[in-house]
Structure formats: C-alpha cells, structure tokens
Amino acid sequence: MDLAGNIYAAGDCSPGLATTRDAFLASIPTTVLTGGFVAALDPSGQNILYRTYVGGGEVTSLVVDSQGSAYLAGWTGNQDYPMKNPVQPYQGNNDDWFLTRLSPSGSSLLFSTFLGGNSNESNAALAVAADGSIYFAGTTQSTNVPVKNAFQSTFGGGWDMFFMKITDAAIQAGPPAAIAAASGASQLAAPNFPFPLRLVARVTDSAGNPVSGVTVNFSAPATGATATLSAPSAQTDSSGGAGVVATANGVVGAYAVTATTPSVPGAASFPLTNAAPNVTIQTSPPGLPFSITGGTYTSPQSFYFPPGSKVTVSVNPATVANGIQATFQNWSDGQPFLHFITVTDTLTTYTAYFTAKYQLTTAVSPAGSGTVTPASGTYYDAGSTVTLTAAPTGSLAFTSWTGPVTPTGPLTGTVVMNAPVSVTANFGTATQPASAISALLNSASYAAGAVAPNEFLTAFGTFPGCTTSSAQVTIDGTPAQVLYASATQVNFLMPDIPTASAVRIACPGGTATPFPVTLAAAAPGLFTVTQDGKGQIALINQDNSANTPSPAGTYIAVYGTGFGTYNPPASDGFTHLALQPTGILTAGGSAPSYPVNVVFAGQAPGFSAGLQQINLQIPANIPAGVYQLLLTAGSASNQATTQATATVQIVAPATSGAQ
Length: 659
Description:
The chain is mostly beta strands. Helix content is 0%, strand content 46%.
C-alpha cells in the first residue's frame, strides 16, 4: 500500500492476463510459461488503476516507494526480460534475479536489471529506503556474483544467502587489470544454431570495479568445430561487460572462444560444444510451418536441448502454405497442436500430421495463347485425379503439356494430386488486348470502396493471358504481390504506401488500363466460412475448435484483411496494428449491442502481411443467438467497419457439476 492508500499486488501468471490500456507490457508470448505482473487498485479496492506484465519470470517481492513507484524482484530464465539502465544487462545463467522499478502510472520502466552469476538464483526479496537505496536479498548457487565490502566474499557451497545495497553513487574505476567470462561459458547448441546465452566478458580494475569503454576482442577456432561470432569485438558497458552472439557451425565437437583486451594479461575462455541434435521436428506432408521455442520453420529441423528440459512445439491447426491447404490431426506423440515435449539424450523425431489438399497451378506458354481449365489455384483432396483441358484462343494450336500430366486426348490430360502441382499448356505466341478491371473488392468481405495498406484485394475483369506467375500489378508504379491470377480474376496484396490513385494489371503481350482507387487508413473485412463475406465468420475458438458456435465469455480468434498499417515488431515477438480496432456484437436493428474485448490485433503469426488476426473475448453476459460482429478500425477522422453480413453464433457458456 502506498501513502495514498492505493493497494498493490504482484505475482506471476500464464499468458492471457487482461492488462490496462496504458500498461507497460500488454502481453507475453504464448511460448512463455509464466510472466510476472503487478496491479494497482484505488483505496476502495473496486477500481483498477493499472495492471501490466513486467516480463517472463516469477515475482517474489513487491514494495512501493513514497512516489507510488512499484519495485519488483524475482527470478527469470528469459533472456529477453526488459532492461532499463541496468547494473547487469546480461543474463548470467538460466535463472537469474531481476530487479525492476515501474513509473507510478505503471506505463513505463524507470529501472530494470539482471542480477546474478554463473549458476542459479532464487528467493529474491527487497526493501527501499527513504533515500532511494535498494536493499536486495536472495539465495544463489553462483560462485562469481560481484561483491563489495563483503562480510563473506567467497561462495560457501550449496545455496548461499546473498545481500546487497544498490545506490546511484558512481564508482571511478581504475585502468583495466583483469578480464573474465561473465556469461555464456560451458554452453551447448545444435550445429548451425545460435547458443542460448551471449558470450559476455567482464573487464575490471585492480579493485574489482567494472571498467567501461574498453575494446574486447573475441576469437573462435578457424577450423573444425567452431562458432561464427556476431562481431569480432565489442565495447564494455557500465557493468564492464562486452558481449557477442555465437552460432555453432556444422561440425560436432567441443572448443573454446577466447576474449582478450589490450594491456590486460591472459584471456577469458568460453568452453562451447556443438552438440549432436536430440530433437527433430517435421510435418507430414512436408513444407508446412511449425514453431519451436519461438522460431518458425517450414522444413525439417534438428535441434539440441538439455536432456530433461521441456520445449514448446506447435503448429497452426488450419494453415495454407507452399500450395498445401492443411488441417491438423495430431503429433506423432499423440499430443495436440501446441504442447510440451520432454527432451531425452537420444535423437527423437516429432512429426505433425495433417490432412491435406493440394493446389493445382495452371499456366499457358507463351502467355495469352490459350487457356487451361480448371482455374489455377484450386485445391484438391490428396490422391484425387483432375482432368485438364487446354483451348487455344488464337490461330496457334496446342502442342504439349509441361508437368506431370498424363495425356488423354488432343487437348486433355490428367494429374494426380499427391503434392502441389504446376502444369503449363504450351501454345504459340499471340498479341493480347488490354486488360481492364471492372470491380475491385476486399478479398474477405467482397465489398467495394476505398482500399487500405496490407489489404488482400480481388480484381474482377478481363485479363487476357494473365497467370499467377505472369501477371504484374502496380499501384502508381509500386509493384504489388500477386497471389492468384487468371483471365477473369487477379488477387493481390495492397502494399503499405502513403498514397495511391490507380491500380494497373498488366498481362503478357498486352497493356494495362488504370483503375482509380481511394486510399484509406483502414478498409477492413472479415473472412467467412463460405468465403463470400457472408454468414459464419472463420474463427478459432478458445478450445481450438474451428468455425463452431462460441460460448459466451470465451476468447476467439477471427481473421480479416484491410485493417491498415503495422507498428514495428514489438518486444513480445508479434507485429501489432498501428490502429487498435474496437468491436461490438449486435443482432441488428434496435437490438442491444455488446462490446467485445480486443486483446490482440496484428499480423497473423507466420502469415502474409495481408492476413490480420484479431483475438477478442465474447462478453459473458451476452444471450445465445446469431450476432453480427462489427470491428471498427482506422483513425478517428477516417474510420471503417467490417461487413454486417459476417456473423458469429453464440451459445451459453459450458457449465460443470459441483465438485
């Protein structure tokens, strides 16, 4: 409690905590098991002043000073824990103490630092004196935590108690006298992967005080098992530390990286091991994205993790990638799409199995000399047989197929869809008429009107000779990514540009007719199950079911396009929309509306910039029924709302029996 009587609480919780609007950290990645948080309430305990995450970790101590600033202490295994004017900016080992001070509003950091050494820390506690000095205590297994004016200057073994006082008093360091490894020694990594911790060398004077501004040179073996370093040298900071990132090469074995500095004898040594992989992750069919420990990959990957550790692996339950439209079934260990694996000391392969539809891409060569049916871009069940028909559009005749086609007649052939297939019907050359756009629609809502940056757009019209690989789309000369093209339809991604006046679609051998457009901050639309902008919205429920009724009070993820520009990637690893959307659920007419709680709005992880994901909570008090979901985006003076024809079916929340 502070001097005004405001109440403060802190602890740790899983991802998904509802934070306040101006919170310092609104969310933590779902790959982080627990994150520290702090909340402030008014003296009545009925109104939240702020609630924010502070980073991945566990909070064990909380105090508040006379200014209303919250101080938190605990321990974390997260290298990305937020830092601000740190005493120790690097993590010494997997579990280090942290010490964090928030502004009275809870919207920013005033100070945040790691504390610890070469082993584990735990049980952090703190107190703040009237002069602002911080008294910090905890337990440690580290042998190299810096000490000063110490009653006991050496590690006693097992778990030692540790106590320190931190002030703003500056220490004038003498000339460099010693260099030692502060963090990153004795690590293991799989070949061609970065080591978990930076290699940090600490330079001190003869009294053990850190020396800043010193150049530290890092060196790795030239041949055999070695590492690639992010830089050959680095300057020491206020803690005396200078660090680089090391990435293992492709050779398995043990070696050491050394760090030296002029005028200081000896070197800091970082023993490293490029360890044989003990985890392989892949998908069936291959080529689909998967995530492990925050990284996303689309080809089989092998990793090394310490035996006994738990690692998060996940896939998207429904995904379209590399010509495959896939629905998740199960992992080879029988677990759901997101789960933990326990690493062993032997190589284990984990396979994510999907049912798949494969994309058939058709083209003609030269462009415009003929057509192929069915239309390019269609997805077919695995193992199905598709009949192709070529038709010349000019004086030249069809000559042959390119691709895995079995000819069945003068103009026909078949393909078996056991993988994404591309085929080309070969004709002679021909001069094509100009292409022209008759309608330009949002690809989700199928609504016409203004266009927005990062919007999937569908153009209908005449595009003679256009294919996905040959069509060229430009907006005032700026090229756009073509997603699909045929003689009558072209789908493309509106680039993130400041102005736009006309779209041109050029096909081989022809000219492009400009189509005027108006650029808006947002022109949002939501994808529906029927893919026509009407009816049930395409969504993922809180229980990971797709496109089924959603219980009141639960969270859902919906997908759309045209919500505008993005902010730069945030510290949580996600790319958020620059303009946060708001939303309501309404039955239409004079029926009441129910505001929804938007908890995330940004680029769908692992997908194109044109696909936006909106995570929201359905109000707990909403009656069962079918509702329009209206999401509004854009600036205050230029707002737009998603289509009223997109609906969500709400059911009563699930109930459980008495325990």
